[in-house]
Amino acid sequence: HTHCFCGGSVIAGNHTSHEDVTYTAYNNASSLKQILKSDDVIYAYLTNNITLDSLRLLESKTLYLCLNGHRITFDEYQVTLNNNTTLYLCDCTTEKTGTISRSGGKTCCVLVSGENATFNMYGGTLKNGNRTGHGGGVNVRAGTMNMYGGTITGNKVNTNEAHHGGGVYVESNKWSGVGKISISGSPVITGNTRAYTDVKTG
After folding, report:
1. Are the C-beta atoms of 62 and 40 separated by less than 8 Å?
2. What pairs with residue 13 in β-bridges?
3. What is the pLDDT of residues 40-97, one digit of tens each?
4. What are phi and psi of 144, to 5 degrees?
5. Would the CA dihedral through 193, 174, 178, 85 be positive or negative?
6. Nearest to 153 by CA among 170, 134, 168
């Protein structure tokens, strides 16, 4: 399994050439989580749909993840990027059916929460995130999100704040964190919702 790290067009993102890299196959949750504990840089592609409780990148880890048309379903938490971590997400298939989704609970699909954490989205779909608060698809609490492609859809938040973002939320509070986002290329962010929660005061 070889392709450029973006998994797609040379015009996607901030690189100008396609040098193939070799990805290693992962077909179950335990093998994918185990490799994240040992190697600092991982090129992984899926050969099956898998279910995870969470996927947490520890400090200084970099994960290149090609969904390869498959689905990762989180049944408890989400992908979490801590300090000095980087996630490159792509889907090299023609059908573009690779998906990261939530099956229950109240969390986003991807949480960018660490200093110098970076989420580079080249492909794949993030869906069914469901938070009480903000950022149903992606919550950029700190760090940076660069979206060059892919789709964020079908996510929601339950909040009384209009700016809390069913699809993507980027924190801009100097006390709790400051995130950054850059969007270019041809990504799709659509069909995300905010359900109004009435806050009672007594």
Report:
1. yes
2. none
3. 999 999 999 999 999 999 899 999 999 999 999 999 899 999 999 999 999 999 999 9
4. -140, 140
5. negative
6. 168
